[in-house]
Amino acid sequence: MPTQNRIVIIGGTACGPKATARARRLDPAAKITIIEQRENLSTATCGLPYFISGVITDESNMIARQNDYFRNVFNMEVLTHKRAVSIDRKSRKVEISDLPSGKNNTIEYDKLVIATGSAPIVPDWEGKDLDGVFTLNNLPDASAIRSYVKQLENKETVIIGAGLIGLEMAESFAKQGLKVTVVEALDWLLPKLLDFEVAAYVQKHLQESGIRLLFGQRVTGLEGSGGRVSGVITENTGIRAGLVLLSLGVKPNVSIARDAGLTIGATGGISVNQYLQTSDPNIYAGGDCVENTHLITGEKVLVPMGSTANKHGRIIGTNITGGNDTFPGVLGTAIVKIFEYNAGRTGLTESEARQYGYNVVTSLVPGPEYANYYPGGKQILVKLVAEESSGKLLGCQVVGPGEAAKRIDVMATALTSGMVVDDIANLDLSYAPPYNSAMDPLHNAANLIRNKRDKLARTVNPMELKEKLDNNEKFVLLDVRGEDEWELVRLNVPQSLLIPLPELRERLSELHTDDEIIIYCHTSVRAYQAQRILEGAGFKDVKFIEGSLSAWPYEDYLS
Amino acid sequence: MPTQNRIVIIGGTACGPKATARARRLDPAAKITIIEQRENLSTATCGLPYFISGVITDESNMIARQNDYFRNVFNMEVLTHKRAVSIDRKSRKVEISDLPSGKNNTIEYDKLVIATGSAPIVPDWEGKDLDGVFTLNNLPDASAIRSYVKQLENKETVIIGAGLIGLEMAESFAKQGLKVTVVEALDWLLPKLLDFEVAAYVQKHLQESGIRLLFGQRVTGLEGSGGRVSGVITENTGIRAGLVLLSLGVKPNVSIARDAGLTIGATGGISVNQYLQTSDPNIYAGGDCVENTHLITGEKVLVPMGSTANKHGRIIGTNITGGNDTFPGVLGTAIVKIFEYNAGRTGLTESEARQYGYNVVTSLVPGPEYANYYPGGKQILVKLVAEESSGKLLGCQVVGPGEAAKRIDVMATALTSGMVVDDIANLDLSYAPPYNSAMDPLHNAANLIRNKRDKLARTVNPMELKEKLDNNEKFVLLDVRGEDEWELVRLNVPQSLLIPLPELRERLSELHTDDEIIIYCHTSVRAYQAQRILEGAGFKDVKFIEGSLSAWPYEDYLS
Question: Are A441 and A471 in the same domain?
Fold first, then answer.
């Protein structure tokens, strides 16, 4: 009879419980112990913003499985309100502190799993410990915020950081009648996830939903009164606040691993190999506390996601019971609901791709989520990023009121398999009018990149055009929409001109073949056609604005 | 100066207009002529069921671009109400018949495109020409059906054929207050697209929506009274009908190609190479009239889809103007909205895969469309099909009230790149509670196949269990849900037994290690866990029902 495998798991949120369940299914005889510092295992931390807003009413819904379920079904020891404080790798023991009593004891392991998660980043600001200053990382945090909101007199709420949690919480607070300001040190929302012009498309909606956005504002401290927070101080201004949420991202919890001498990567996460094994072969680690391999760049990255933590858990559960499963890596895929908009991305943004040194070609394509003749369809904006030389896909962003998750997941799959833009153009995606157009926006985005690489489509992006307009450059801005569309809204600059596309061939004499001509329409379909007509007629410097009016990210020049 | 390229395109629905537009963008000087036998180019034929139901109100919405738009923007000749009757390949001429006058003339080409589409299959039944007997292939068909419905006295409507169009029209007719019966010669709905147990999941919903379904009934003829249809006769019965829609699939329109001596494939579609070139290098063909290569089997198939026709059009437009683009093939991806359900598939069904001789492993996984704690989520049922020996993915079906198109499109992308089930298990799909669970049903379906291949999960499918029950086989049917769930609904057979999962380890003595034990719960998550508990305790013949109650396709044995 084999020796009983003693498995100890530190951390009970996502990776830990998943590893537990998998290990038990594979090894009915193992002795399994899980250590969790809070009250419950398997809390649904990704749902906390919705628990705070009341969309999810019952706290019990936030706990996937009760501790007794783990005990009874998985036949294991569940140690809650206990913290693992150190690892003795030589004698394979973990020292555990009982949090209520402060007493320590040790537990022996054959295989140890570190799933210690991550903690919110809290700068060393004056006032960070005032009442009413919160971070959101776990169920007790969420319950505390819920309670504080209920007795809040000053409804002005400041969220510091326009990342995923910050924006989910903006919606969550606004739904409770709070007045929300989001302060972000960088220049646009979701700055680590989206490029500027894509973020700008979401930004309008957020503002229309009543959220005040302050970009490029570095917070320097928090003000209080009577022990409670009363304001946020930035380099430029002060903002009144009855509640402040710090959502500046998270850092991996690696102190126990570092103290035990395990290798910590340059990212700050625990270094693991493809088996999710640390530098000690008897110790595995997964979830938010480890660094992952990025599938596009091959670089190590920190991308803390519940979905990744669950996948890690299964692989670790396999490997600590004698198996041999591997985790390939991540794409940094993310999605967030922001009021009625969806915002998702996978792979690299354009700015990330350029930072990594890729030669980049992109396309920016607005389009309906499904057949435009089928009623109720909403818009999306797709940005595709590829390598110019090879056409290899590097990343994708999709935002808007229309369906985004499908396109992101298709692109995540395409990126995983190393597809090029030509592959996307011919993907046999499901088509029927309630779901799609005959050509999906992804097909169109891929074809625009092909047309750009083939020097058929010549474009300026909105930022380039804005700069030209700001600099009063001389060129013709040609609108090829109908007069009715022009009346409603247009780019109103002196050099603008309207020639509806069906009249263009007859009215070529109104343009000069040597002029620089920049064309736009509603989505760029007609503008591209117009570009080809003019080039066919011998015009020498013709381009169109990518995304045209549908993707124009500024208030400027519109009327 | 090069000679002007004379391009002639036969057929103006989807592939033809797309080829036109692309060709014009690439070759400003070409002489382009399109020939269409009906009134309009670029009609949205996929939207016809929604035009008939009134979801799309205006006929003008069914025409993507007016004929004058083609003339003015693409600078081309649009010949409508004209039919191409023959091709003289030697002298490169097409003979055209003017339909109103019956006069013929000829037109010369350098490159010819055949985009003649497909026509509904109409068996040689007595009564097929009666008033009130329709097929649905084009806008005039739809207008005729709309008019006929308005003056219909007998509201009983029979749809012959439970394919995509048949089911879309069932909903369309029902929404207009008609009483709808669908008659299908095969044994379940969408028989060429879904496996039985997946179709059964949709079937319940269709019946609850008031549609009468008659399977395994071969129609032999139609009855009339006063020149109008009054009934449908099958081998077994007669059905009263004031309107009959024949939706038995389509056949490619290849007569002009065949008469010209072009190669027709064994499928009946025009044979083309990867450049969509026919056996005559100056003649290209695309859309419904050609056969495609199936990306999984490599075999030639007929899969008429508007999405494919558009992709063909772009490639042909490139190649007839000197380019070199290729079409890789199709997966038979399809999706259909059936009242409040979605039903999609891509790649091969299990039955198709077996017909092609693959050794097959499948998984049947019900699950919520997104995080079950986030309110409003609806169910989907995923069936994954893979090659047992290699784990290579072969196909996927997703049905239910929840989101299906996303999962189908992810799998279409995965199938295109030749992924194996392990790749799906670790796909970095977008995750946030309003969109997904931390583990998507696709992840779970892939992991179930991995567990089956690793001999960890042992299952019976619903059909196998039904057969065992029908044969009164001796085994223990173990329900591991809670008592409250058992009270609501259960598989009510004499050999059934309830032991809630958390009590299972304590109550092992109620079971015998030598018995055959088949376990179920609500979705199979608990049943799989129970299987592993029993096996860990030395039980020798334990399986669980795939999909458990959530995927039980029968009324039988339920109470």
Answer: no
How far apart (Å, rounded) are the C-alpha atoms in residues B328 and B326?
A: 6
Model confidence at A2, pLDDT cuts 50, 70, 90, reads low
Say how many domains are in chain B.
4
Q: What are phi and psi of A505, to 5 degrees?
A: -60, -30
In a domain, B333, yes or no: no
Are A257 and A112 in the same domain?
Answer: yes
A558 located within any domain: no
- Amino acid sitting at position A369: E
Tokens representing residue B389 in the block: 């020996």
Distance from CA of A148 to the nearest CA of B (A): 23
CB B338 within 8 A of CB B171: yes
When CB atoms are compared, the residue of A28, A73, A332 closest to B502 is A73
- Number of Cα atoms under 13 Å in the Cβ half of residue A371: 26
Half-sphere exposure of B536 (CA within 13 A, CB side): 19
| Residue B435 covered by a domain | yes
- DSSP character string of A30-95: -EEEEEESSS-SSB-GGGHHHHHHTSS--GGGGBSS-HHHHHHHH--EEEESEEEEEEETTTTEEE
Contact between chains at B21 and A447 (C-beta distance less than 8 A): no
- Are A155 and A229 in the same domain? yes
| B558 part of a folded domain | no
- Average model confidence (pLDDT) across chain A: 96
- Among candidate residues B15, B46, B289, B396, the one labeled active-site is B46
Residue of B44, B334, B502 lying closest to A430 (CB–CB): B334
End-to-end CA distance of chain B: 81
Q: Helix H segments across B43-163?
A: 48-53, 67-74, 139-150
Residue that is last in its domain, among B453, B478, B498? B453
Amino acid in the structure at residue A191: P
Alpha helix (H) residue ranges in A75-191: 139-150, 164-174
**Do B423 and B398 reside in the same domain of the chain?**
yes
- Residue B1, pLDDT score: 44
Domain boundary (B266, B290, B319) is at B319
pLDDT tens digits, A457-499:
999 999 999 999 999 999 999 999 999 999 999 999 998 999 9
Q: For residue A458, give both structure tokens.
A: 């010549």
Q: Which residues of A touch B505 (CB under 8 A)?
A: 72-73, 75
CATH number (domain holding residue A34): 3.50.50.60
B355, B440: one domain: yes
Among candidate residues A34, A312, A21, A18, the one with its CA nearest the CA of residue B533: A21
Are both A449 and A463 inside the same structural domain?
Answer: no
The Cβ-side half-sphere exposure at B539, using a 13 Å CA radius, reads 26
Residue B150 makes CB contacts below 8 A (sequence gap 6+) with none
Round to whole Å and give the CA distance between A325 and A272: 13
Ordered alpha helix ranges (H), B94-195: 139-150, 164-174
Is the sign of the CA dihedral A101, A104, A105, A111 positive or negative?
Answer: positive
DSSP string, B480-549: -S-HHHHHH--B--TTEEE--HHHHGGGGGGS-TTSEEEEE-SSSHHHHHHHHHHHHTT-SEEEEETTGG
Q: How far is B547 from chain A (nearest CA, A)?
A: 19
| A464 contacts: CB under 8 Å, gap ≥ 6 | none
Please indicate, yes or no, whether residues B417 and B357 belong to a single structural domain of this protein.
Answer: yes
- Looking at residue A502, which CATH number applies to its domain? 3.40.250.10
* Residue A113 shares a structural domain with residue A256: yes
- pLDDT, one tens digit per residue, over B491-537 is 999 989 999 999 999 999 999 999 999 999 999 999 999 999 999 99
What is the spatial order of strands in the sheet that A516-520 belongs to? A459-460, A541-545, A516-520, A476-479, A496-498
Q: Which domain holds residue B177?
A: 133-248
- Respond yes or no: is residue B15 known to be catalytic: no
Handedness of CA B236, B238, B239, B244 (dihedral sign): positive
Q: Cβ(A270)–Cβ(A259) under 8 Å?
A: no
